[in-house]
Amino acid sequence: MTKPVNKRLDSGRILPADHTDRSEAPLFTSVDDVSARLAESGYLASPAVATTVFLADRLGKPLLVEGPAGVGKTELAKAVAQVAQARLVRLQCYEGVDESRALYEWNHAKQLLRISAGRGETWDAARTDIFSEEFLLPRPLLTAIRGDEPTVLLIDETDKADVEVEGLLLEVLSDFQITVPELGTVTATRRPFVVLTSNASRELSEALRRRCLFLHIGFPEEELERRIVRLKVPGIGAALTESVVRVVGALRAMDLRKAPSVAETIDWARTLLALGADALDEDVVRETLGVILKHQDDILKAGAKLDLDAG
Amino acid sequence: MSAEVADRLVGFVAALRTHGVRVGTGETVDAAEAAAALGFADRGLLREGLAATLLHSTEQRRVFDTVFDLYFPYGVGAPQDEPGDRDDLRDRLAAALAADDEALLARLAIEAVDGFGGYGSSPDADGWSSHQTLERLRPQTLLARVRDDVRARGGASGFADRLLEDEIRRRIEAFRALVAQEARRRVAERRGRDEIARRAVAPTADRVDFLYAGKDRLAELRRTVQPLARRLATRMAARRRRAARGTIDLRRTLRGSLSTGGVPMRPVLRRRRPVRPELVLLCDVSGSVSGFSDFTMLLVQALHDQFSKLRVFAFVNRIDEVTGLLEHGAADPEGLGARIRAEATVTGYHGSSDYGVALGEFAQRYSAAVGPRTTVFVLGDARTNMSDPNLSSVREISERARRVHWLNPEPRSLWGTGDSAAPEYAELVAMHECRNARQLGELTGRLLPV
After folding, report:
1. Which phi and psi angles does B248 have, rounded to 5°?
2. Three-state SS for B311?
3. Engineering a disulfide at B415: which of A56, B144, B335, B422 sits with its beta carbon 3.0 to 4.6 angstroms away?
């Protein structure tokens, strides 16, 4: 193995530890600016979401988003990327994701080719050559840190990854640098805007949590949800929107196994629109309840509470 | 940032820490930066900003909100204008509930506490009580009136009309919370914020004692147990994966090395014999520990797919098997408790718990359920109502089983007081204190066999 050498990959400079001293301009000027611009890209943010996105940008810290499935955690990252006109780099976590999938990998096949096509140089020269950037396959984390254009790094479903991967993330998220033993340390020239999402199926470590701003996206307020439905399902009537959102709100208060999320609300509204229903009644609700509730006992429970059989 | 603001922020963080929210200095600095970036003009923004920088999990939010209201209140002092009389306030409250006007409801809550919450003899009131305010105002009696009001205005028609009553009930509940918050703030103004923050803030749900949890906390607790079960399942899966990596089997490694001329090129790992762990649960379902057993049952239900060989027994003073009642997927502890009491024989001639008789009956009737692969969990407070603890049958069970664990929902300091036979049992089996959801999670993660 070669000794680590202090060569820089990019024109990277060492950033001062004080993260307020950043050269590039912040993405957003105020919380209202966040809301307005996210709304333009089709993401209606609650005040909590807008405030936290603003702070993540200002303080230069990663954003850890938790919440039930289908409330728009991943969408938030995509919307920020669109608004900031940044490229979106996505690391999808799953059980067994490792360094070579998350950080970088050496292109062994190409290295072998290079050695066998040797030009008769010394071993030292060959070694330096095959451990150069040409033979490096950057994976999402390295990709996000290199490069000069604005970047949004989305680390999706962080809780699905093993605990060891969290250790990897720590160096990346606190100092925005990655150490490649053969090449040296790569430091970000431009800090990416980092969003981590989690469904809380595993408790993330305290060390990772304290490096991030924490945002819990819950189910939206009625007013916001009505706006979301009208935006995502154009052509739906105001009266139908209102009753759909109210029924979903009632279902969420019912203590079901899986409470319906925003994604389900939108699906249901689309279904109703496709069926040509312009108002809710017992028959329509009974037939379409499967769109919003995914467990049979939930459907039975909700049916009983909503008196679907009475009508 | 002025010294006064910094002091307030540090006091706020200290109050959070006393309630088990771990906040480091780094986060406090972040919070100050967030406050500086957001300004103090908009209280809602400040609240979200501080929450984002100081909190690490969703459960902490409830504590955070209560403490935040104390340290960064809506306003200070009393409302300037003269409070109206009770009927006038009720009229305006009904109108606000019908219109679902949250800002107006918040103002009315302040007015209500000011007008009806003060007690004591001095003209400026000695204290403020949310209970007294709600007792005099009785917002729950407004339900019918608000409903008729909304219907008359045609605000609800068709299908959604049937949801109206529940919606109004939720609004009234929200108003009651606002009143409680305002009363707490007024008391804090009088007696010092730090003291009230220490005493009058409810702990996070996973730290509430099972035995003393009120009705509303029980519902909240149930929601914390759900993800707990899922987390346990993943943790157990990870433990199983790790356990599959065995140690080196030297004999087979050496024999394999013959083909490479005696050089052990390929180490052979010792194969693990897959065991199917068996689990037996003995649950006390008597009234004194009902809060506790409901949650354990819920957890057991969720772990059903992890343990194919799981048998559950319930007892008060007789014991009966209830495995069949744990219908898969029907996560409903209240219904489960009711089903057990209705369908299983758990009581004999009287209704109070008797550990000695129940455990003796188990050792006699179900001794086949316990074998060398079985881990037995006993869940109960070990209060025998002065009868014989029947230590010999416990010894018998513990000799037959692989391990026996006893989870006791009482604080350790109470073991052995009164009719508790906990110390006697603890000499025979491993007894663990299991007072709240947090301890339950830790214990089950540690003790469950892989």
Report:
1. -75, 135
2. strand
3. B422
Residue B387: predicted pLDDT: 84
Q: Name, in order, each residue with C-beta under 8 angstroms of B403's C-beta and a sequence gap of 6 or more.
A: B375, B376, B430, B447, B449
Residues of A within an 8 Å Cβ radius of B: 20, 31, 47-48, 51-52, 54-56, 58-59, 61, 66, 162-163, 200-203, 206, 209-210, 213-216, 242-243, 246-247, 249-250, 253, 255, 257, 279-282, 285, 295, 297, 306-307
pTM beyond cutoff 0.80: no
Helix (H, G, I), strand (E, B) or coil at B366: coil
CB-CB neighbors (< 8 A) of B16 in chain A: none
One-letter amino acid at A249 equals G
Alpha-carbon span B129 to B280, nearest angstrom: 49
Instruction: Indicate yes or no: CB of B234 within 8 angstroms of CB of A295.
Output: no
Strand pairing of A184-187 and A177-180?
A: antiparallel
A contacts of B329 (beta carbons < 8 Å): 257, 295, 297
Contact criterion met (CB < 8 Å) for A202 and B231: yes
Tell me the C-alpha distance between B293 and B210, whole Å: 9
Give the whole-angstrom CA distance, residue B21 versus residue B17.
Answer: 5
A247–B57 CB contact, under 8 Å: no
- Interface check for B122 against chain A (CB to CB < 8 A): the answer is no
CA distance A291 to chain B (A): 18
Nearest alpha carbon to residue A175 among A185, A165, A163, A162: A185
Task: Return the residue matching tokens 């950080």.
Answer: A103
Amino acid, single-letter form, for residue A88? L
Chain A: closest CA distance from residue B46 (Å): 9
pLDDT by residue (tens digit) across B203-223? 666 677 777 666 666 666 666
CA distance B364 to chain A (A): 38
What are B320-329's contacts with CB under 8 Å, separation 24+? B320/B344, B320/B345, B320/B346, B321/B366, B326/B297, B326/B300, B326/B301, B328/B301, B328/B304, B329/A257, B329/A295, B329/A297
- Whether the predicted pLDDT of A245 surpasses 70: yes
Contacts of A307 in chain B (CB under 8 A): 162
Which of A213, A222, A247, A289 has the most B C-beta neighbours within 10 Å, making it the best mutation to test the interface with B?
A213
B24: left (phi over 0), alpha (psi -120 to 50) or beta: beta
Q: Where are the beta strands (DSSP E) in A107-212?
A: 136-138, 151-156, 177-180, 184-187, 193-198
CA B330 to chain centre: 20
| Closest Cα in chain B, distance from residue A203 (Å) | 7
ipTM of the prediction: 0.82
How many other CB atoms sit within 10 Å of the CB of residue B105?
20
Cβ B277 vs Cβ B247: under 8 Å: no
Task: Give the bridge partners for A155, in sequence order.
Answer: A91, A196
**pLDDT tens per residue across span B46-96:** 999 999 999 988 878 888 988 888 888 776 666 655 556 778 888 888 888
Evaluate whether B67 touches B182 at the Cβ level (below 8 Å): no
Q: What is the pLDDT of residues A39-54, one digit of tens each?
A: 999 999 999 999 999 9
Q: Which CATH architecture has domain A31-103+139-216?
A: 3-Layer(aba) Sandwich (3.40)
